[in-house]
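Appendix B, record 7
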Amino acid sequence: MSVVTRPVDVESRVPARELATVSGPAPAVSVPEPGRLVHLQFRRFAGCPVCNLHLRSIERRHDEIRAAGITEVVVFHSPAAELREHVARLPFAVVADPDKRLYREFGVESAPRALLNPRAWGPILRSLGRGVVRVLRGLDRLPKARQPQGRLGLPADFLIDARGMVVACKFGEHVYDQWSVDELLALTREKREEEIG
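Structure tokens (predicted):
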């Protein structure tokens, strides 16, 4: 067992903290959270069409995620005011990290492979098509043309137990390489069974 190193990995312990939220059920969220698992996921910038595609899947199944004992926390590297315009309707905690402090602490990277990996191209096209329709319907807004922290961020997922221990993690190889809801729930069941067994 180790204290947080770069990158954070399974069996790393993360220090307890309160993160201010820009949307969600409360103005702040605890990581770790007593009695629950925290799914801490790192996304890209406010209005990112690929991130929105993934977050809609999380939103659709949020009740199921909560019922499994998981608190969803999503981090973006955009300023709070800009981010708030894009995520106000989401039912889970969204955190602004415009200086990328959490990204550095957890070892979350940016790289050209985020967009250049051929496995990303299908999700990119799907997200752009759906995003245009949602913008035209007034359901979403276009992202700002200039992103101070760039557009080449890679996703990352961390499952953190109530003690602050990282029990599972995934560093994405491209822009749409993250846990699906089914994978998250399966990991959670596996961890619960390990605790019981």
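Remarks on this record: The chain has one domain: 2-190. The CA atoms of residues 20 and 28 lie 4 Å apart.
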